[in-house]
Amino acid sequence: MPCSSSSSCKPRPPPLAPTVAALSALLARCASLTAAAALHARLLRSSRLFRTPFLANCLAAAYSRLGAAPSAVALLVHAPGAEANRFSHNILLAALLKCRDLPAACRLFDGMPHRDTVAYNSMISGYVDGGRPDEAFRLVRRMMELGVRPSGFTFSIVSSAVCSAPHGVQVHAAAVRSGSANHNTVVGNTLVDMYRRVGLLKYAVRVLWSMEEQDIVSMNSVMSVYKDGGQSHGVFECFRLIRSHWFMVDEYSVSIVLSTCTDAEDFAKGDQLLVLCIKMGLLSNSVICSAVIGLLSVSDRLADAVWLFEGVAKWDSETCNAMISGFARSGIMEQALGLFAMALRNGILPTEFTFASVLRWSSCFGLMEQGTQIHALIFKCGFEDDIIVATALVDMYFKLGSLKHARRLFSNVCAKDLVLWNTMIIGLSHNGRGKEALQVFWSMLKCGIQPDRITLFAALSACSLLGLVNEGMNIISLFKANYHVVPGLEHYTCVVDLLSCAGMFREAVDLVDDKLQKCNTAVLSNILESCVIQGDIAMAESVAEKMMKLKPLSSLPYIVLAQKYGGRCKWESVARMWRLMEDQGAKKVQGCSWLCIKSEIHVFTSEQVVHLGGEATYAVLDLLFWEMMDNRSAPGCVNKTEGFACTQLLLHCTL
Fold first, then answer.
1. Class of residue 321 by CB neighbours under 10 A (exposed 0-12, middle 13-18, buried 19+)
2. DSSP annotation string for 7-72
3. How far is CA 590 from CA 362, 404, 604, in A?
4. Where are this protein's PPR repeats (predicted)?
5. In terms of C-beta density within 10 A (0-12 exposed, 13-18 middle, 19 or more buried), how is residue 130 classed?
């Protein structure tokens, strides 16, 4: 058919080939591996991929960014051209590190002719992610010795790997010298978090206020610092500052303040924050919802917490953790374990906090069978190496009296933190192993772990168990001089117990008068019990008379003085003691023993003639009795602590 016009018969010009800039822009905007592979194929067909190393680098960077690091490695290994070595090597180095091939990355790094800040940052990050912080610190020193200027990202990486106060101070000093500490918000935030982790809370606050510009991450970090230090007032002030400066609060800001209200039991402020969450529609966020459930559970509003939990559109690990902890905290372990099992059936994988919550509360109720079952599940899920779960397991086995399992778990943890060390020392002390607890304490100090107030209390408890007065005083002096830990009321209370166990009652009373005026009634009661146990009747009478002036609610001083007057036939004084005890409303604290049989816990008091539990209870007691007798008859197998506890239980339950 002839052409209708000459213009329509002209051949169309070929399409313009995309420029290198256009191709690189397309690669930078690739949002899927499929798109990147399609561009890769197009470049190979047009023979333009290896015409310039720039496109090969862009394609490799896209592969690495989209999670296909092995493809990036394969591409760059076969890419010719040496003129773009620096960029190609940096991209290849980052891809190798994403593949977790640290040895190959080290070989590539050592062979690079030009190593810039990007290359050093990649290797430092690789060492940190690979659990080799010492190598990362050595590489930073080498980098600075060779004159390569560290960037803000360098200090951010190194700060995240710091685990001791001296290293933290050195990193901070280097950041100040480079000018990144005050001018770079990201570096300042990482320094604040670093000081929070190593326990230097004052330094963290100073870093925050020295920053030229803060953001919401900065304020969240310093609120976490105040929260860790137990300074609820500082948390509330920071939150008011966030609101007054019109920062956009996020879920972490609100959850930190809610957790602070829970820890401080400041339910009035917690209710105000709850109203704010409702107004802003924040309860749909799982982090905030779980914090609110925790607040309601602690404030004895478990029904409201259950109502909120039942209204959650979709369960997740955070809300389930909070509700499980709320049930267990209220003593409803059956519902807690039931919810734990239901969450597993619904496909909600447990986290380390789930296991820690269940283990913590199940051990408090002596549920040995459930605890070992949860341990088996932890092993199957691969959480046994997690430091939080390992600490919870050690604590559980100590509370259940299984010292062998606790020791084994503790020794299997490679990187032990302060919480795990403290748990080990306290657990050994509570199980009557004071000498071993002190050995663990000194081993912790040799490992360079910075102790805290809990460590001091644990060490003093071990000294009190053994009656080591001089060693306890030396430990207090050591903490004051080397670790800047000033003893508080709980530590002086432990010292009073230490002096009382050693028979130094006069020194104990003087310490109470000097340091413990606010809680001297409870502490004097402990001294009085020690006096009675050790048979120092004269001192017991003196302490009881001192307690009588404080009008105590405990019946112990009244009973001690009544027995003393009865021995002297002063019957009017005996009657006066009983009347004073009745008028004061003092009640005798009734001791009890408990025994767990499968899922049931039986409590026994001395006033019961027939105990609940029937034949099963007494069958277990018979087994305990014969096991105790076998241990006593076997040479070298006597466990005095367990034998005494078992004897006390049997005598108590057969009254």
1. buried
2. TTTSPPPPPPPPPHHHHHHHHHT--SHHHHHHHHHHHHHTT-TTTSHHHHHHHHHHHHHTT-HHHH
3. 24, 32, 11
4. 116-150, 316-350, 417-451
5. middle
Residues 404-424 have pLDDT tens digits of 999 999 988 887 888 899 999
Residue 550 CB-density burial (10 A; 0-12 exposed, 13-18 middle, 19+ buried) = exposed
DSSP line for 150-167: P-HHHHHHHHHH--SHHH
- Give residue-wise pLDDT tens across range 136-151: 888 888 888 888 888 8
Strand-pair partners of 292: none
CA distance 79 to 429: 64
The dihedral through the CA atoms of 413, 416, 417, 419 has a sign that is positive
Q: How far apart are CA 623 and CA 611, in angstroms?
A: 17
Residue 83 confidence class, pLDDT cut points 50, 70, 90: very low
Longest Cα pair distance anywhere in the chain, in angstroms?
142
Q: How many CA atoms lie within 13 A of 481 on its CB side?
A: 6
Q: Which amino acid does the sequence have at 388?
A: I
Please compute the mean of the pLDDT values over residues 352-356 and round it to a whole number: 79
Beta bridge partners of 597: 600
What's phi and psi for 601, nearest 5 deg? -115, 125
| pLDDT given for residue 635 in this prediction | 44
Q: What is the 3-state secondary structure (H, E, C) of 310-369?
A: HCCCCCCHHHHHHHHHHHHHCCCHHHHHHHHHHHHHCCCCCCHHHHHHHHHHHHHCCCHH
Q: Give the DSSP H/E element, type plus range, for residue 600.
A: strand 600-605
Report, in this order, helix, strand and coil percent for the chain, each rounded to 5.
Answer: 70, 0, 25
472 within 8 A of 460, measured Cβ to Cβ: yes
Q: Do residues 155 and 178 make contact, with C-beta atoms less than 8 angstroms apart?
A: yes
pLDDT reading at 645 higher than 50: no
Q: Which of 589, 580, 533 is nearest to 561 (CA)?
A: 580
Q: What sign does the CA torsion over 587, 588, 589, 594 have? A: negative
pTM of the model: 0.58
| In CATH, 488-584 is 3.30.70.60 | no
Give the pLDDT confidence score for residue 442 in this predicted structure. Answer: 93
Distance between CA atoms of 518 and 646, rounded to whole angstroms? 37
At 363, which amino acid appears? S
Burial class (CB in 10 A: 0-12, 13-18, 19+), 253: buried
In 3-state terms, what secondary structure has residue 602?
strand
Structure token digits, residue 280 = 């802003």
> Looking at the DSSP assignment, which residues form a beta bridge with residue 599?
none
Cα within 13 Å of Cα(402), Cβ side: 18
Give me the residue spans of the domains in the chain: 488-584, 592-653
Residues 6+ apart with CB under 8 A from 102: 96, 126, 127, 130
